[in-house]
Design goal:
Elements: H1 7-15, H2 23-31, H3 34-43, E1 58-60, H4 74-82, H5 92-104, E2 111-114, H6 118-128, E3 135-139, H7 144-152, E4 156-160, H8 171-177, E5 183-187, H9 199-208, E6 214-218, E7 240-245, E8 258-261, H10 264-271, H11 277-280, H12 284-294, H13 297-320, E9 324-325, E10 333-337, H14 342-350, E11 354-356, E12 366-370, H15 374-388
């Protein structure tokens, strides 16, 4: 598989400290084959349980939206489906880029679509990290970044989220953990805590990190929040990449559509390994659905408000039962602290037909719970009453 890397790319990788033995692993990440399966299988380990044989289980474990794409996008999706025999039937990719650029007030050259946001996340680690230029993240956070770094032999620094900071990212601690890192990964709202890293803090990190290091800001859950986006920074900096996805609020997890925002020079570095195919050949139904979704401002706000109401209902019910949860989530998830082994609670709740999320090694007594529909969360509370009553 390492044979897919050109001599120029091999020389560049060697200059950054990779060994020839790692060429195959680099190519594996970029080809999204066995490496992709390795990372995704663990990162999305909270899918439907084989042990649960209930006709309609409540699935609040994988941070999926409780409902599908907006119904108003169906006509656009069907029109694209009818021309699915064409690689690019009607400039759908360019149309999506233009819509995104208009809404984010950013030049089209700074926008790239992908099949989800996993590829550019993994690709950024290959591109900007090296064995001696490590990856810095908080702990816990989305594990795909860790697994990519581990696969490549890249040094990792994980900064624990702490109660004195309300479990939000401490950017000064990130820099202190590795002042010479190649990539600082900031997920905001963070998965699994839903906590926000302010734009002010991201700017501070950008101004104080090594000049040649890059900040990867993962905004997969930003549409559930009203926090400021880091996209405003990319037009006047060459050291920030922002990721977005349609998998969450837009209900398109199975359609696979994501975006990256960065200076064109950064995108060229990310794409130099295997050409531009990864960002060019996108599912046309996903492109059409995503483009139509972005224009539904009223429906987006309604779905966001519904999510917030369901989250507040759930937190209120947990508080009434004296079950602790981490504060500050602005996403479609919360971390529930059971005060005992979370894996056993997850299994017991699954026995009631409710599939909740996993725990992280740093927090073995805490489970991530996705916020679903009001009915989903009522079923969750009912399951808690059964297993803890």
């Amino acid at each position: 598989m390492g044979d897919t890397l050109t001599p120029e790319i091999r020389a560049e990788a060697l200059a950054r400290g990779y060994s020839r033995r790692q060429f195959g692993r680099i190519a594996g990440v970029l080809s999204m084959s066995s490496a992709f399966a390795r990372f995704v299988s663990a990162a999305h380990a909270s899918g439907p349980s084989e042990a649960v044989r209930i006709s309609e289980p409540v699935r609040i474990g994988a941070n999926e939206c409780w409902t599908g794409p907006f119904p108003e996008t169906q006509e656009s999706a069907l029109a694209a489906f009818a021309h699915g025999n064409r690689y690019e039937p009607s400039n759908l990719r360019a149309t999506l880029i233009a819509t995104v650029a208009e809404q984010e007030r950013i030049p089209v050259e700074y926008v790239r679509p992908w099949q989800g946001s996993m590829d550019p996340l993994m690709r950024a680690i290959v591109t900007f990290c090296a064995p001696q230029r490590g990856l810095v993240t908080v702990d816990p956070t989305f594990e795909a970044a860790w697994r990519t770094a581990q696969w490549l032999g890249v040094r990792q620094s994980r900064v624990p989220l702490l109660p004195h900071n309300d479990y939000a990212t401490d950017v000064r601690a990130l820099l202190k953990a590795d002042p010479n890192a190649g990539l600082y990964y900031v997920c905001t709202p963070n998965n699994p805590t839903g906590t926000i890293t302010s734009l002010e803090d991201i700017v501070w990190l950008a101004d104080n990190k090594p000049k040649d290091a890059v900040i990867l800001v993962d905004e997969a859950y930003i549409h559930f929040s009203r926090a400021e986006s880091a996209i405003s920074l990319v037009t006047h900096r060459k050291d920030i990449v922002v990721l977005r996805t349609f998998s969450k609020l837009f209900g398109m997890a199975g359609l696979r559509l994501g975006l990256s925002f960065a200076h064109p020079d950064l995108h060229r570095r990310m794409l130099r390994y295997d050409g531009e195919a990864a960002s060019q050949l996108i599912n046309v139904v996903a492109l059409a659905t995503g483009n139509a979704s972005l224009r539904l401002h009223t429906q987006i706000e309604q779905r966001r408000s519904e999510l917030i109401a369901n989250r507040e209902y759930t937190l209120g019910q947990l508080k009434r039962r004296n079950i602790y949860y981490l504060p500050g989530s602005e996403a479609n998830m919360i971390m529930v602290d059971w005060g005992k082994n979370a894996a056993s609670l997850q299994k017991a709740i699954a026995g009631q037909g409710v599939e909740i999320g996993r725990s992280w090694p740093i927090w073995p007594n805490r489970s991530r719970v996705t916020i679903g529909s009001r009915r989903d969360m009522e079923r969750f509370i009912q399951a808690i009453d059964v297993v803890t009553g």
